[in-house]
Amino acid sequence: MIDLVKAAIAALNADMVEWRRHLHRHPELSFQESNTVRYVIDRLKAEGIEVREGVGKLTPGSPGTGAIALVRGTRSPSDKCFAIRGDLDALPITEVGKENYCSQNPGVMHACGHDAHTTMVLGAGIALHRLRSEWSGTVMLVFQPGEEKEPGGASLFVKEGVLDNPKPSGIMGQHVTPELPIGKLGFRAGPFMAAADELYITVKGRGGHAGSPHLLIDPVIIAAHLLTSLQQVVSRRNKPGQPMVLSFGKVIANGATNIVPDEVRIEGTLRSFDEVWRAKLHDLLKEMTEGLCRSMGGDVEFNLVKGSPAVVCDLELTARMRAVAVDLVGAANVVDMDLRMGAEDFAYYTLVMPGAFVRLGTGNPAKPGTTSGLHRAEFDIDEDALAIGATMMACGALAELHD
Q: What is the DSSP string of 287-328?
């Protein structure tokens, strides 16, 4: 069956490149993917594939910007179902390079490869539909919004029950990976990617003229102490050997050379794997923040937004997907992945069904941007990976439907 799938994907390769480039030229932010999902739906319906629209509603009554498609094999009756997932949203980044398909939406860019993920699920689904007389069961194509923004489109899909009819026996996700060379597929069974929480802190003091510090409660100094003191949670409160990251990427004081502001706003992220420790961390960070700020004469607003849990890949399903990958690209090109402190809302699916997550090699030093890290303005992929990823998704799904 692999040879049939490879041939069907090869026939779609030029289309997949064009789909991916169209999506790359027209990126949309999380929960704003109306044109993106319409582009996908139109191609599915043109093939005669059943589509459920308007799912993944951020708020009641809002338009859902996700879709579910059902590709049904016709060889013999079967109630088996397996899901493959792609994400639709882009990031608030201004792109550089890529003259032929650079983003046409200022300040928005597919810098995390979701255009490729969507394309590969679409390609896998259309190839399987064209081969439907060769297999039995149902492959659910999951096109979800909002992977990059809380509450996460995956959580909304689970909450809305859109994966319940028919109910898949499992789900596979995939992510482009620039540090892996083109042709490689990476797997990890068990814990794989971290839980992610967002921190929003406003340190409040009393600003004024910088030449009169004795009259002020300087929130800049308090914030500086806070940023370094909170790292003690990592170095002194976290158990050695337990993966954890606390990073702050945004600090805004909005003063001037001679003006101390009234407040400083700080935003950061917390990454962890153990749910018991994660809960303790939430309380500990709040206590330390409030205690330090008040001890220095200031006040503080502390808000922690709980994000997606850790991605935990099912041991047995991952082993089966790895076996499919070996058949597809050879044992030498199937590699073990380390724990990653990046987060993925794919975790919400793994809470309700077995899941496997594949890292797709897209790096090629001969092609500009393809070895750049994710979430960077110059990020790109080697598009030869599209056929590999689509074939992996299609063959992985068929392996789970096989009697």
A: HHHHHHHHHTT-EEEEEEEE----EEE-HHHHHHHHHHHHHH
Domain containing 250 equals 195-306
Active-site option among 89, 115, 197, 344: 89
223 and 353 both lie in a single domain = no
CB hemisphere CA count around 208 (13 angstroms): 10
| 204 and 228 both lie in a single domain | yes
Whether residue 87 lies in the annotated active site: no
Tell me whether residue 89 is one of the annotated catalytic residues.
yes
Catalytic residue among 95, 147, 345, 382: 147
Last residue within a domain, chosen from 278, 306, 334:
306
- pLDDT tens, position by position, for the chain (403 residues)? 889 999 999 999 999 999 999 999 999 999 999 999 999 999 999 999 999 999 999 998 889 999 999 999 999 999 999 999 999 999 999 999 887 899 999 999 999 999 999 999 999 999 999 999 999 999 999 999 999 998 999 999 999 999 999 999 999 999 999 999 999 999 999 999 999 999 999 999 999 999 999 999 999 999 999 999 999 999 999 999 999 999 999 999 999 999 999 999 999 999 999 999 999 999 999 999 999 999 999 999 999 999 999 999 999 999 999 999 999 999 999 999 999 999 999 999 999 999 999 999 999 999 988 999 999 999 999 999 999 999 999 999 999 998 6
